[in-house]
Specification:
Elements (H helix, E strand, L loop, with lengths): L6 E3 L3 E4 L6 H10 L1 H4 L13 H16 L4 E7 L2 E15 L5 E8 L8 H15 L5 E6 L4 H9 L3 E12 L2 E11 L6
Parallel strand pairs: 5-6
Antiparallel strand pairs: 1-2, 2-3, 3-4, 4-5, 6-8, 7-8
Helix pairs in contact: 1-3
């Protein structure tokens, strides 16, 4: 039996795991958006912007999906299915009594304000709740990133708290607002 990774579609978008053929586009995405994304990302590893890094990372991402540990998706516009415009990472998948994960995401600076991230997250969340049968998705954002806060609110995420010095972002510990969304149709 051959393993088929997920292909998630919405009205305008395709979401899928990266393949080795996507590496040039991954590098383009992160290189083109490095300045824009840097204030919201952990410090970039020394070799992050290299083909060698992504040769390994693409395989790790596939293995993490196969082993129910993570789902790392890249976002493509259907009319340009080889150009990456963003990513959504569902990580830290925990089963057992928890049945939850965390989500992080980014979108190209040139693709902002087109509704792409709302559309992509709606489709991806539906997949995580229906196909992976997780009960809870947690998303956290820095208080000064109101664009992300507004997005999560639109998607139905509820604020649950405030964490001081929560994540090391761009070399500095940053406070985060903690939110979550639960699956109303979770099946035990």
């Amino acid at each position: 039996m051959q393993f088929e990774p997920p292909l998630i579609t919405s009205d305008r978008l395709l979401l899928r795991l990266a393949t080795k053929e996507d590496i040039p586009q991954i590098l383009n995405y992160f290189t083109d958006n490095k300045t824009y994304l840097t204030p919201f990302y952990p410090q970039w590893s020394e070799n992050f912007f290299t083909e060698e890094y992504w040769q390994i990372q693409v395989e790790i991402d596939l293995q993490e999906y196969i082993n129910y540990l993570a789902l790392k998706l890249f976002i493509f516009v259907q009319s340009e299915p080889t150009t990456i415009i963003g990513n959504i990472n569902f990580g830290n998948i925990i089963r057992g009594a928890a049945q939850f994960c965390s989500v992080g995401y980014s979108l190209a600076e040139t693709e902002q304000s087109k509704g792409y991230m709302t559309e992509a997250l709606n489709a991806a969340i539906q997949y995580v709740f229906q196909e992976l049968n997780l009960h809870r998705i947690m998303a956290n954002y820095m208080p000064h990133n109101q664009r992300s806060g507004n997005l999560l609110k639109r998607l139905g995420f509820l604020v649950e708290g405030y964490a001081r010095d929560y994540l090391l972002i761009n070399g500095q510990w940053q406070d985060h607002i903690l939110t979550s969304l639960t699956n109303p149709n979770w099946q035990g």
